[in-house]
């Protein structure tokens, strides 16, 4: 992971054609994968759907390659039940972190640009609660949640050019998050996420982004 982050930062430091600010809001569906010290997976867990936010910086590296880094705030949740002991339980955890990634322009038609995107995202627990039979417990200090998580995410971004320095984006990302550090009891928690966001991208100057050549042809 360190090598991947280093490569992304080197690319970001290179001279690019333009710089953008992006802001996104959306929904994230999360599947909890919990395994006990014997490697047995906890069954009957159902994904939860919550709001997610991103705001960050995007830079053009070439005509088709972009670097991005975002601050992210996600709420991950899941719920389930135990038919043997008639228990019900749920978790809701808020994580703050950042993304480092690249996206590549795979297809372009008129005002639309479809990008393939990949990123790595370290995230840290800010707060969270666990409910067992309507009794609430704080997740702060719980080893499986308190350790930092690293997410590897990939997906598609569709941008629609509104004007020479503004685009609207629709993004879908699939991700897997694993805790780093962990503990000595061999219990493991990981997340599988699916995220859909709607956002805007502002170019700080009129350049390659939002199809500069198309606007030049129209005399704008």
Summarize the structure.
With 220 residues, this protein is mainly beta. The protein contains three helices and nine strands.
Computed CA radius of gyration, to the nearest angstrom:
20 Å
Average predicted confidence as pLDDT: 84
- What is the CATH C level class, in words? Mainly Beta
**Known CATH architecture:** Beta Barrel
Report the uncertain regions. Answer: 7-16, 215-220
Order of helices and strands: HEEEEEEHEEEH
Provide the structure class: mainly beta
Number of helices: 3
Would you count the extended β strands for me?
A: 9
Explain this structure to me?
Helix content is 10%, strand content 65%. By secondary structure, it is mainly β. It has one domain: Porin (Beta Barrel), CATH 2.40.160. The protein has an 8-stranded antiparallel β-barrel. The N and C termini lie far apart (43 Å). The model is unreliable at 7-16 and 215-220 (pLDDT under 50).
Key features of this structure:
Porin; 10% helix; 8-stranded antiparallel barrel; 220 residues; mainly beta; disordered C terminus; elongated
């Amino acid at each position: 992971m360190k090598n991947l982050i280093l490569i992304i930062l080197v690319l970001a430091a290179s001279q690019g054609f333009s710089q953008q600010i992006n802001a996104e809001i959306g929904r994230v569906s999360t599947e909890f994968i919990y395994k006990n010290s014997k490697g047995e997976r906890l069954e009957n867990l159902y994904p939860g759907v919550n709001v997610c936010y991103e705001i960050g910086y995007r830079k053009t590296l070439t005509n088709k390659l972009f670097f991005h880094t975002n601050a992210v705030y996600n709420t991950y949740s899941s719920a389930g039940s135990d038919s043997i002991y008639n228990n019900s339980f749920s978790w809701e955890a808020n994580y703050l972190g950042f993304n480092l990634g690249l996206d590549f322009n795979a297809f372009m038609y008129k005002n639309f640009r479809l990008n393939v995107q990949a990123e790595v995202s370290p995230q840290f627990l800010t707060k969270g609660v666990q409910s067992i039979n309507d009794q609430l417990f704080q997740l702060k200090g719980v080893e499986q949640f308190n350790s930092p998580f690293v997410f590897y995410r990939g997906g598609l971004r569709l941008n629609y050019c509104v004007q020479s320095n503004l685009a609207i984006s629709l993004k879908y990302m699939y991700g897997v998050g694993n805790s780093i550090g962990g503990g000595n009891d061999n219990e493991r928690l990981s997340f599988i996420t699916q995220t859909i966001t709607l956002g805007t991208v502002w170019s700080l100057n009129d350049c390659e982004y939002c199809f500069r050549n198309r606007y030049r042809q129209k005399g704008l």
